[in-house]
């Protein structure tokens, strides 16, 4: 099935692509302006950038030199000198230091992929398509003159609203104002038409509303016509002639001068507020600089964006006379006497208040003393209260504030209240829901309330929804099939257990009616959309997050019959499902009879019967049950949607279009609904399926079938038995040639049973637990000590909390107190009733009663005593000497464990040490899994016998695929700062080869070969036998140039590898430097260069990200340092600002070793050693901007490795020379005591520092297939 769907999609995409190529484009744009006009305008707007950043939302942000920005092309600004900061900022009574905010930091999406360099400004790139959407090139980026809220107007509302713009605002007028400020709640309102918009903003106004209005505006907006999407975006606007010929949005014309390099006007902002959920707001401040007269814009409390020069304005060159705050929408249908459904604010009326309606708070004005104060005589205004309204408030930390907005129309039960002009409301969501309910819920002759909450309507059989289908308008109901398949098998006849549905306890439907479960409003609202209600959200291919464990058979079939085992699987989240079903398919048509658990559809976790059909591969046709026209029901006792009760077996047959449950004929699918399936089915599938809605490589814990693997067989695993198909003679025969299919056999499996039993016939078992281990990162504190451990701050011990139902604790968690709580432990669930067992007893391995340390009373550490054949994988901690309960944790069966060892130190005393645990054997093929627990190791004795877990199915199904790798790396790609004095920069390998690097062969040193840019002429494989090496160009100038690398052509090379039993993904990020510079020494207070010591040609350095495959979160980062390195927890790292998840590393001067913080790290002791200097500078490698995945072996050939990666020789020559002369030369410069200290240190200099010896490539490093050292 999946193959067919993908083929159709590909052909469609191919046809569309060819059509696009063949379509001529002489005149571009639906408005008729030419490509030449477009090109000229784009050239004016898109200035050559120093750097461009691709945003996840599709925007391209150009980092343009601040002096080249569009503003300075304005005739009044030709000789303008950019002012880099205002001379004065207004004081506020609601500063951030005085007012706590419920809001979270707002960021712009492009920040995740980098920032603009110093002395540049970020400008959203304008594209050809943006101009095509405008009414004309000249009007691109300009507002309509109608976009002016006129609260003083005495015109009737009908006249005001006919201009197409509507407002809900608070304002202050007839004063002298020098600015305004507010916190503006951020939402993403629905915009109905592409030429409409919805915004929230501040207006600073001067002049009159007719012809010479001056206006400065800023806020957020959703504008499909301007931006080509419906994202919420930050914007500014200005005009000096009432929107006639001057001004524009953002930087789409000359005028506004930007100075900030972190905020892009027109860029999308996130996160956004949700109804009844978290609320977010942005702070906007506009004020007039009293010295220069410019109007400045500030975003948030720290981003001063830029200014509008005073020379742009007439009235505003002095002051503003009116300030407005609020929302605005465009109603493009006003001239037709209709009203848009475009929302303002949150789409809710002001009365709904916090968390529902949108707000402005801390509304202030700037007075003549340049101070922010509460405005006086505030008034409110709306064009049409039935559509959008405003409600003011005052006092408290919110100061002057108001709620505003609306949905454009009001629905009160079934009465529609128009806002203007008798709008037809058929497209409003509430109306759509009511109309859909009316279609589905046919007037019943009788209704029955079920114990489980369902209402069953007994609908006249001729009125059921099926007959709304165009093909069934004149259909005559067939009450029985003309022929029922006869059985031709050796199966023993056995009456199936009667199937019951709970509602039958309270009554039965009359004759000539059918039982239909009533659809409630909540059922429809749980759907992805009103239109898609009742339809499958995903197709049955694995690409949609669906996983299956099934059997299939190919041939010519006319039906199927089977007995299906019924269980109630656990479903983790509401939009997932677990089901058991059969598919009958032909071409792209499918007809199904199934059992499923689907909370997202039914609102509960009850087991329900259902049917489904489609005739176009889950496109526009078909639905569940009777949620659309199609399936004709004829049973008054069985409703395809209703919960089954006290049933362990289900006998389902679908001999071509008829469906039978047990002995009850439920209904049929008329042949006219189908194309290829009208004649026969070409394939039949039986088995289970689940929806996995987890992202980032994670897997759901939703169970399939019984939640047990197929290999556990009868009474544990779920099954299908007596599986039969209907042949061309309408005879039921045992199914043959079954083929098993599973998407993820780590989570779900299928196994065919042994034939021969007349009771079982052809049968198979299927199912599984989904994710059977769970990473828990929430804890309850048990005990702390405040001395010992790293930084002598003590340690804290925790019990895992919020453990999922069915999972057991394996051990407690501990960490030192020198950093914030950051960690996890695994919990597990028993798959077969014998994988986990409670301990037999506990042994007290440590107690702190006698220790004279700061502690929360005494602590007691207990080791579980496991049963025979089981291992303990963690310890417990208590605050009493009483043994813990035996069911507090579980031990693990021995064959599911591996040996482990102490890892990082957590805490210690004279009696012993506490350390993390890790598997002894670690690497890409190693199966050991870290549990996250700790061990106690007494002084001078062996540690307790604890184990790690073992991944017994190392098939790498938990690892990210190609697209997921991109998402992970774009999220966590580190920034590496080079020292400001660094002269030996990195480059790409291709740049190095293309700029003259040479390949030498032993015995032919006089005839080196140039290297192809992709390294195709490098020797492949072999070993590092000294027969080949690389070197710099021979030409002296070329050599010096290549030694210094090229930062602009730097590329990060990624090796993606499984680690710790594939429970983590390691992304090793390799950087290449053409040259490693000379070392420098520090001898007490003297710094000395070390000559040639430390120099070598070719330098490979790396950073490794370790990301959890359970949660997709960054856990640790490894920083390579010379021949070693260090692991750091993510909580101990510096991250790029603005809420970014991108860690920061610092490369040392000349040596390029990686460190977590800027400063000096000395390789030595007693203040004598080799310097490793790091510092932040403008020389930075943003690894997310230029990277290449060069290896991911677990993908099985999905990544093509570049030839240079399999070059196993040296990347630089080996040059032996005596360092004695260099050491003596340096020593001569030092006085006696320092000389002695230096000479003693020189004897300890690591071997890799002495002599010039090029490194081998990444693939020959020990960490390539193993763990980091």
Descriptive overview:
The protein is mainly β and 1269 residues long. Helix content is 9%, strand content 34%. The strands form 19 sheets. Strands 25, 29, 34, 36, 37, 38, 40, 41, 43 and 44 form a 10-stranded mixed sheet that branches. Strands 6, 10, 12, 13, 14, 16, 17, 19 and 20 form a 9-stranded antiparallel sheet that branches. Strands 33-32-31-30-39-28-42 form a 7-stranded antiparallel sheet, with no helix packed on it. Mean pLDDT is 82; it is low at 1-30, 93-104, 152-162, 410-426, 491-496, 538-544, 591-598 and 642-657.
Q: What is the gist of this entry?
A:
The chain has 1269 residues and is mainly beta. It contains 13 helices and 80 strands.
Q: How much of the polypeptide forms β-strand, as a percent range?
A: 25-35%
Q: Which sheet architecture does the biggest sheet show?
A: 10 strands, mixed
Query: Rough shape?
Result: globular
Protein structure class: mainly beta
| Alpha-carbon distance between the two ends | 47 Å
Q: Low-confidence stretches at least 5 residues in length (pLDDT < 50)?
A: 1-30, 93-104, 152-162, 410-426, 491-496, 538-544, 591-598, 642-657
Q: Number of helical segments?
A: 13
Average predicted local confidence, pLDDT:
82
Radius of gyration: 36 Å
Helix content: under 10%
Keywords: Signal
Protein name: Neprosin PEP catalytic domain-containing protein
Pfam families: Neprosin, Neprosin_AP, Vps62
InterPro entries: Neprosin, Neprosin_propep, Vps62
List keywords for this structure.
ten-stranded mixed beta sheet; nine-stranded antiparallel beta sheet; 80 strands; signal; Neprosin PEP catalytic domain-containing protein; mainly beta; Vps62; 13 helices; 1269 residues
């Amino acid at each position: 099935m999946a193959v067919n769907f993908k083929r159709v999609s590909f052909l469609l995409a191919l046809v569309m692509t060819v059509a696009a190529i063949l379509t001529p484009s002489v005149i571009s744009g639906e408005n008729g302006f030419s490509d030449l006009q477009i090109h000229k305008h784009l050239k004016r707007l898109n200035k050559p950038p120093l750097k461009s950043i691709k945003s996840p939302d599709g925007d391209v942000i150009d980092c343009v030199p601040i002096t080249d920005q569009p503003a300075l092309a304005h005739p009044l600004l030709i000789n303008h000198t950019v002012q880099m900061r205002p001379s004065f900022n207004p004081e506020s009574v609601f500063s951030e230091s005085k007012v706590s905010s419920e809001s979270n930091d707002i960021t712009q999406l492009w920040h995740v992929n980098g920032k603009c360099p110093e002395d540049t400004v970020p400008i959203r790139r304008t594209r050809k398509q943006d101009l095509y959407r405008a009414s004309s090139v000249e009007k691109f980026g300009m507002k309509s003159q109608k976009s002016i809220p006129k609260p003083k107007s005495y015109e009737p509302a009908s006249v005001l609203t006919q201009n197409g713009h509507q407002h809900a605002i608070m304002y202050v007028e007839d004063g002298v104002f020098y600015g305004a400020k507010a916190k503006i709640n951020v939402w993403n309102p629905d915009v109905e038409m592409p030429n409409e918009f919805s915004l929230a903003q501040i207006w600073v106004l001067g002049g009159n509303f007719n012809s010479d209005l001056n206006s400065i505006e800023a806020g957020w907006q959703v504008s499909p016509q301007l931006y080509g999407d419906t994202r919420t975006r930050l914007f500014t606007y200005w005009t000096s002639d009432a929107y006639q010929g001057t001004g524009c949005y953002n930087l789409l014309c000359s005028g506004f001068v930007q100075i900030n390099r972190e905020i892009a006007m027109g860029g999308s902002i996130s996160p956004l507020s949700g109804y009844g959920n978290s609320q977010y707001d942005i702070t906007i401040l506009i004020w007039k600089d009293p010295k220069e007269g410019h109007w400045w814009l500030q975003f948030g409390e720290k981003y001063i964006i830029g200014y509008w020069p005073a020379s742009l304005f007439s009235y505003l060159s002095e002051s503003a006379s009116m300030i407005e705050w609020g929302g605005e929408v465009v109603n493009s249908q006003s001239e037709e006497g209709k009203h848009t459904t475009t929302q303002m604010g949150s789409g809710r009326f002001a009365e709904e208040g916090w968390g529902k309606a949108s707000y402005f708070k801390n509304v202030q004005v700037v007075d003549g003393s340049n101070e922010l104060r509460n405005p006086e005589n505030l008034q409110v205004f709306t064009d049409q209260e039935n559509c959008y309204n405003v409600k003011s408030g005052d006092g408290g930390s919110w100061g002057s504030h108001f709620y505003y907005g609306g949905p454009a129309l009001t629905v009160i039960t079934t009465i529609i209240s128009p806002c203007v002009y008798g709008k037809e409301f058929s497209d409003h969501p509430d109306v759509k829901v009511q109309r859909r309910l009316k279609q589905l819920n046919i007037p019943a002759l009788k209704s029955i309330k079920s114990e489980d909450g369902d209402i069953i309507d007994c609908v006249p059989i001729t009125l059921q929804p099926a007959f709304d289908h165009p093909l069934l308008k004149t259909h005559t109901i067939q009450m029985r099939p003309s022929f029922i398949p006869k059985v031709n098998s050796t199966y023993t006849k056995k009456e199936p257990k009667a199937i019951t549905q709970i509602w039958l306890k309270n009554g039965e439907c009359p004759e000539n009616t059918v039982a239909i479960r009533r659809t409630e409003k909540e059922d429809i609202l749980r759907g992805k959309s009103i239109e898609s209600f009742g339809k499958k959200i995903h197709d049955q291919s694995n690409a949609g997050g669906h996983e299956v464990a099934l059997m299939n058979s190919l041939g010519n079939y006319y039906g199927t019959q089977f007995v299906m085992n019924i269980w109630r699987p656990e479903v983790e989240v509401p939009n997932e499902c677990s089901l058991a079903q059969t598919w009958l398919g032909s071409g792209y048509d499918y007809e199904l009879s199934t059992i499923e658990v689907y909370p997202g559809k039914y609102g509960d976790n009850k087991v329900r019967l259902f049917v489904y059909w489609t005739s176009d591969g889950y496109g526009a046709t078909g639905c569940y049950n009777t949620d659309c026209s199609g399936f004709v029901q004829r049973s008054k006792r069985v409703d395809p949607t209703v919960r089954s009760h006290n049933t362990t077996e289900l006998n389902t047959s679908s001999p071509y279009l008829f469906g039978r449950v047990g002995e009850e004929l439920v209904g049929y699918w008329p042949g006219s609904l189908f194309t290829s399936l009208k004649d026969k089915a070409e394939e039949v599938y039986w088995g289970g399926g689940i929806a996995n809605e987890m992202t980032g490589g994670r897997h759901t814990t939703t169970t399939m079938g019984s939640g047990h693997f197929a290999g556990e067989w009868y009474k544990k695993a779920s099954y299908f038995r007596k599986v039969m198909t209907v042949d061309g003679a309408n005879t039921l025969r045992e199914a043959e040639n079954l083929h098993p299919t599973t998407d993820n056999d780590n989570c779900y499996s299928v196994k065919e049973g042994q034939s021969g039993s007349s009771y079982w016939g052809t049968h198979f078992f299927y199912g599984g637990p989904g994710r059977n281990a769970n990473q828990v990162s929430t804890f309850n504190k048990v005990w702390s000590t405040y001395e010992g451990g790293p930084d002598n701050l003590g340690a804290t011990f925790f019990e895992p909390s919020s453990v999922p139902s069915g999972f057991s604790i394996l051990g407690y968690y501990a960490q030192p107190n020198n950093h914030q709580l950051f960690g996890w432990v695994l919990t597990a669930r028993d798959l077969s009733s014998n994988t986990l067992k409670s301990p037999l007893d506990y042994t007290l391995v440590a107690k702190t009663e006698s220790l004279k340390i700061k502690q929360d009373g005494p602590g007691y550490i207990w080791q579980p005593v496991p049963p025979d054949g089981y291992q303990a994988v963690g310890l417990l901690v208590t605050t009493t000497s009483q043994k813990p309960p035996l069911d507090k944790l579980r031990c693990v069966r021995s064959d599911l464990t591996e040996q482990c060892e102490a890892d990082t130190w957590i805490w210690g005393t004279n009696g012993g040490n506490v350390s993390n645990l890790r598997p002894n054997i670690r690497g890409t093929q190693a199966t050991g899994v870290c549990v996250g627990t700790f061990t106690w190791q007494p002084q001078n004795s062996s540690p307790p016998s604890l184990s790690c877990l073992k991944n017994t199915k190392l098939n790498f199904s938990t690892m990210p695929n190609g697209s997921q790798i991109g998402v992970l790396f774009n999220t966590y790609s580190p920034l590496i700062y080079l020292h400001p004095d660094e002269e030996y920069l990195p480059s790409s390998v291709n740049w190095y080869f293309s700029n003259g690097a040479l390949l030498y062969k032993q015995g032919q040193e006089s005839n080196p070969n140039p290297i192809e840019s992709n390294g195709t002429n490098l020797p492949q494989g072999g070993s590092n036998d000294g027969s080949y090496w690389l070197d710099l160009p021979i030409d002296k100038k070329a050599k010096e140039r290549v030694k210094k690398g090229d930062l602009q052509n730097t590329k990060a090379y990624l090796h993606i590898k499984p680690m710790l039993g594939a429970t983590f993904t390691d992304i090793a990020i390799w950087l290449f430097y053409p040259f490693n510079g000379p070392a420098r020494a520090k001898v007490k207070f003297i710094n000395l260069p070390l000559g040639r010591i430390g120099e070598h040609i070719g330098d490979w350095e790396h950073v490794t990200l370790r990301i959890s495959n359970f949660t997709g979160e960054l856990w640790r980062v490894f920083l390579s340092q010379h021949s070693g390195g260090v692991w750091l927890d993510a909580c101990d790292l510096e991250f790029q600002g603005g809420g970014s998840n991108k860690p920061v590393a610092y490369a040392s001067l000349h040596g390029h070793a990686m460190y977590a913080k800027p400063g000096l790290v000395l390789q030595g002791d007693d203040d004598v050693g080799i310097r490793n200097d790091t510092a932040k500078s403008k020389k930075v490698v943003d690894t997310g901007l230029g990277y290449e995945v060069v290896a991911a072996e677990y993908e099985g050939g999905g990544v093509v490795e570049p030839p240079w990666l399999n070059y196993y020789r040296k990347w630089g020559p080996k040059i032996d020379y005596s360092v004695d002369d260099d050491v003596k030369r340096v020593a001569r410069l030092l006085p006696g005591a320092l000389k002695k200290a230096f000479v003693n240190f020189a004897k300890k200099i690591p071997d890799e520092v002495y002599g010039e010896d090029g490194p081998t490539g990444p693939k020959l490093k020990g960490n390539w297939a193993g763990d980091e050292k």
